[in-house]
From TrEMBL:
Belongs to the TMC family. The keyword Cytoplasm does not apply. Keywords: Coiled coil, Membrane, Transmembrane, Transmembrane helix. Residues 632-670 form a coiled coil. The chain crosses the membrane at residues 106-131, 152-172, 187-205, 279-300, 355-375, 498-519, 547-568, 604-628. It comes from the Eukaryota. The lineage of its organism: Eukaryota, Metazoa, Chordata, Craniata, Vertebrata. GO terms for molecular function: mechanosensitive monoatomic ion channel activity. This is Transmembrane channel-like protein.
Length: 765
């Protein structure tokens, strides 16, 4: 049993290490089958008596569990959406292009969760338990707009029935509880609107922390990069031809990425000229950013003037001038920035970060310029709402007084007015939501049309007109397009910022963005694989690069500011939305605490909102962040020092091994000269005179002590062998000659290549 157990363990060990054996595949498969059959037959026989069946059962269950875990891991990998598409893109275009699609997939997952929150806690309760369409004025199209409420032009501008639907803020009722479940819709609306930001912040920070654990900046930290790629890149378990093609393309792209990194490391540059060109490039880009901000502010002010005119007299361009100009700036400025950035000659990875930062500044400046101009319009609508509210209150008071005096009663019924005929305010929250939805839709249209015209049509022209054109269209103008990484990434981030800001005013905007991301994945994957070519300078995108997430985190913070300003400062509309009839939107929280919760919770909330407690808490958080940042830097420095020590230890080990191999090689050469003799010096012997050769006698075949000096001492291996020149491995046909005039006068004098008993071996006869 002991020998059987040992043999089974040996077979198991062979199965585990069979992949690393330098054998042919046929021999590996044969041994694998034999070992598996032996283990399967005798492994259950290791137990004794009753334990034999139990052991066999445990072995069987362990094997089944291993197989289940392997199948479950394969199932989890298969469930990752678009994994094969992204791997195919990465194999042909490099990790930099694939990083965009990975980021797009991550954004799709985030928006799915946000849509679940908004739809499950706001939209669905209102649809199932709220009042139906036409029951109250806020859910009814006004009489003056009903004739054109279903026109295509009106619906495309999100007016008519779209304006008074669940897509926008104004549709939701202000009753504190609705339905048989007594669902608190206004409280849920406020908490979901803020919870979207809280959940997004948690997910972004968690993703950044997970990425920072991977380390590295996208380059190769180790040595012998090309040797490792050459001898270890191929996977010999690939059996699918399509997978093999993708792997071949991936290895080729990986070599291109490493070549670019090596070229950038060896580049020499004129530092003074480079600084001047970079300052000039930044100056030009700042001028472009300032001009775009001024243009947007001017256009928004014009749109406010157009809003006071008759809409039938305005053209399509005048109605959609703001969206058109913002989309045009987002389309023109990124290529302009990329052209200016060629003056700087950064590494492609660093150039991508600068390009992302500049386009981010462009989009953010345009967005906040749009918001400032939009809030000027909001203030004007608030003044209009105040006048309409005062007139409505005055009219109701007149109605009540006239009815009371005429009928001489205090039981006054409400005015019998159809909801479509009620005079209502402009509902500025819905107007802001419409602007965000229009911006999102125009961004989708511009992105898709750019791909269709700028990439697909361009590729069709190059593909089919190249044979009959005056020059080579593929090598010259227009050629095939390259995938714009920076523009597409910033488009995603900018669009997500609009979703975060606009979701509070338009709950249906999150669902619209989910559809947009879903179609973008298929549409852009198709466009990349069929219309684009890899970049001329393929570079590695860092797998732990948090630059995208850092920009997204900044956009999240800047998107939170307008929403918090709206909730804490601006009064809600008096006749639309879940917060109508309240002075501030956050008053719904105080109402819930006073009416639905015990008194001590209200006291706790009052103490928690005391500025005397908030300021020390904020100061403590700042100190904690500072401490954690300092600790993180110390850990980074310690890791760098440890890496240096490991590198030094590896270099020392390599040098020691190389020296040992050189010494062993010299010793082997000496052993080859005398294969039957030992290199170790023998014991002390009496000096023997050299043999006297008679005339016509043959010379002895082997010298007694090769390399020995005339005084009879042996060769000092530690000192002499390491200093000797390498000796070619040639057959020995002559005994070594005398060592000098003191040894034997008949020998030839030592030549320039001789020393310490190692002369140049004679040529073969």
């Amino acid at each position: 049993m002991t020998s059987l157990k040992e043999e089974v363990e040996e077979k198991k060990k062979l199965i585990a290490t069979l992949r690393n054996k330098p054998w042919r595949m046929k021999r590996r498969l044969k041994l694998l089958k034999e070992c598996q059959a032996f283990v399967e037959e005798f492994e259950g026989a290791l137990g004794k008596g009753k334990g034999r069946k139990l052991y066999a059962y445990k072995v069987m269950m362990a094997k089944k569990m291993i197989k289940f875990n392997r199948d479950f891991d394969n199932f989890k990998t298969a469930c990752i959406p678009w994994e094969r598409k992204i791997k195919e893109v990465e194999s042909h275009f490099g990790s930099s292009v694939a990083s965009y699609f990975i980021f797009l997939r991550w954004m799709y997952g985030l928006n799915l969760v946000l849509f679940a929150f908004m739809f499950g806690l706001v939209v669905l309760p209102e649809v199932m338990m709220g009042l139906p369409y036409g029951s109250i004025p806020r859910k009814t199209v006004p009489r003056a707009e009903q004739d054109r409420a279903m026109d295509i032009s009106v619906l495309l501008d999100f007016g008519g029935y779209c304006k008074y639907s669940i897509l926008f803020y104004g549709f939701y009722n202000d009753e504190r509880t609705i339905g048989v479940l007594q669902f608190r819709l206004p409280l849920s609306y406020l908490l979901v609107g803020l919870g979207i930001f809280g959940y997004s912040l948690m997910v972004v920070i968690r993703t950044m922390a997970r990425n920072s654990d991977e380390g590295g900046d996208g380059g190769d930290d180790g040595q012998f990069t090309f040797a490792f790629k050459m001898f270890t890149s191929w996977d010999y378990l690939i059996g699918n031809p399509e997978t093999a093609d993708n792997k071949y393309a991936s290895i080729t792209t990986s070599f291109k990425e490493s070549i670019v990194d090596e070229q950038e490391n060896q580049k020499d540059e004129n530092i003074h000229l480079r600084r001047f060109l970079r300052v000039l490039a930044n100056f030009l880009i700042l001028c472009s950013l300032g001009g775009s901000g001024f243009l947007i502010y001017f256009v928004v002010k014009r749109s406010q003037e157009f809003a006071n005119l008759d809409q039938d007299e305005l053209s399509w361009f005048e109605k959609n001038e703001v969206e058109f100009v913002m989309s045009l700036l987002g389309l023109v400025c990124p290529p302009l920035f990329e052209t200016i950035a060629e003056l700087e000659e950064y590494h492609p990875r660093i150039a991508l970060k600068w390009q992302l930062g500049r386009i981010f500044a462009l989009f953010l400046g345009n967005l906040y310029t749009f918001l400032f101009a939009l809030f000027d319009e909001v203030n004007a609508k608030l003044e209009k709402e105040k006048s309409i509210r005062n007139a409505t209150i005055w009219g109701l008071n007149e109605y009540y007084s006239n009815y009371s005096s005429y009928h001489n009663t205090t039981d006054i019924p409400p005015p019998d007015i159809h909801p479509a005929d009620v005079i209502r305010g402009p509902c500025w929250e819905t107007a802001v939501g419409i602007e965000f939805v229009k911006l999102t839709v125009s961004d989708i249209q511009v992105t898709y049309m750019t791909i269709l015209i700028g990439d697909f049509l361009r590729a069709m022209i190059v593909r089919f007109l190249n044979y009959c054109w005056c020059w080579d269209l593929e090598a010259g103008f227009p050629s095939y397009g390259e995938f714009d990484i920076s523009g597409n990434v910033l488009g995603l981030i900018f669009n997500q910022g609009m979703i975060w800001m606009g979701a509070f005013y338009a709950p249906g905007l999150v669902g619209l963005n989910v559809l947009r991301l879903l179609t973008s994945m298929y549409y852009q994957c198709w466009a990349v694989m069929s219309c684009n070519v890899p970049h001329e300078r393929v570079f590695k995108a860092s797998k732990s690069n948090n630059f995208y997430m850092g920009l997204l985190l900044l956009v999240l913070f800047l998107s939170l500011l307008p929403v918090v300003y709206t909730i804490m400062t601006l009064p809600p509309s008096f006749d639309c939305g879940p917060f109508s009839g309240r002075e501030q939107m956050y008053n719904v929280v105080m109402e819930t605490i006073e009416n639905d919760l015990p008194a001590f919770i209200g006291n706790i909330f009052t103490y928690a909102t005391n500025p005397g407690l908030i300021l020390p808490a904020v100061l403590l958080m700042v100190l904690a962040i500072y401490y954690l940042n300092a600790t993180s830097k110390n850990y980074q420095n310690a890791n760098l020092e440890l890496k240096k020590k490991m590198q030094m230890a590896r270099d020392e080990e390599k040098n020691r091994r190389n020296n040992k191999e050189n010494t062993n090689q010299v010793m082997q050469d000496l052993e080859d000269l005398l294969p039957n003799r030992s290199l170790l010096p023998p014991a002390a012997e009496e000096e023997k005179p050299p043999p006297v050769l008679e005339k016509g006698s043959k010379s002895p075949k082997v010298a007694k002590r090769p390399g020995a000096a005339a005084n009879g001492k042996g060769v000092n291996i530690q000192k002499d062998v390491s200093l000797a020149a390498p000796n070619p491995k040639a057959a020995v046909t002559h005994p070594p000659g005398p060592r000098g005039p003191s040894g034997n006068a008949r020998g030839p004098p030592p030549g320039p290549a001789r020393g310490r008993g190692r002369g140049t071996p004679p040529s073969r006869r």
